[in-house]
Design goal:
The protein is α/β, with parallel strands linked by helices. The chain has one domain: TIM Barrel (Alpha-Beta Barrel). It is 42% helix and 17% strand. It has eleven helices and nine strands.
């Protein structure tokens, strides 16, 4: 079932963080997933259907490593689901096609809309398809976002980006962390992606600060 308001994790207990990654799978996805698995951390990877077509073997491996796969639409259009709906696009198909590529994925499937763009009309349209709504939950947005993709575009060292995330986590104390293991609609930035290095730098920092990592599935539905 799709909520009218996005879920952000603001109601989590202090010191609790959920790690999430968007737009993959990409070349760095498995490195991120393997590192986190080795640290005993379950993340959620919100995958794009068109990205799965390029690396079809990766989602099953990510799931086997103990992580959750979420639905991030098929095309990840710049206008998001709100823009697609306003333009007469088929947003039900955007989610249905990607869900079909997540075979074996635990349900309900978590959903994150591209760019976090969401409104009541989108929720109402998706909930009208009762089968789709029964298979999904969301939308899950975020509490902590330091625009890691912009860091890759500007050539900023991953350790610096990690310090930015650390500062923001310390400030807000809890929530859902947004990072990108790929950038689906920004190929120039995708080629510069350094999410694996960011993750290896950030996780020890957060552990040292006393944060604990929890699965997306325990986030309260607001």
């Amino acid at each position: 079932m799709f909520s009218i308001e996005p879920i952000t994790g603001v109601n989590l207990p202090d010191g609790s963080l959920v790690l999430t990654y968007d737009d993959g799978p990409g070349p760095n996805t498995l490195a991120v997933a393997e590192y986190l698995s080795g640290m005993g951390i379950e993340a959620t990877f919100f995958v794009v259907g068109e990205s799965i077509e390029k690396l079809p073997h990766v989602p099953a491996r990510v799931r086997a490593l103990g992580h959750r796969l979420g639905n991030h639409t098929w095309t990840h259009q710049m206008g998001g689901l709100t823009g697609q709906l306003e333009g007469g696009g088929d947003i039900v198909d955007e989610l249905t096609r990607t869900a079909a590529r997540l075979g074996g994925n635990a349900e309900p499937i978590a959903v994150r809309p591209p760019w976090g763009l969401w409104n009541e009309a989108v929720a109402r349209t998706l909930n009208a398809d009762t089968l789709l709504a029964a298979r999904h939950v969301g939308p899950f947005n975020w509490t902590i976002d330091c625009r890691d993709w912009a860091g890759w575009s500007d050539g900023i060292d991953p350790a610096v980006v990690a310090a930015q995330y650390r500062a923001r986590a310390t400030e807000v104390k809890r929530g859902i962390v947004l990072m990108h293991d790929y950038t689906a609609d920004l190929p120039d930035i995708a080629a510069k992606n350094r999410s694996a290095e960011l993750t290896r730098a950030l996780v020890p920092m957060l552990i040292a600060d006393g944060f604990r990592f929890i699965p997306l599935g325990v986030v309260p539905i607001q």
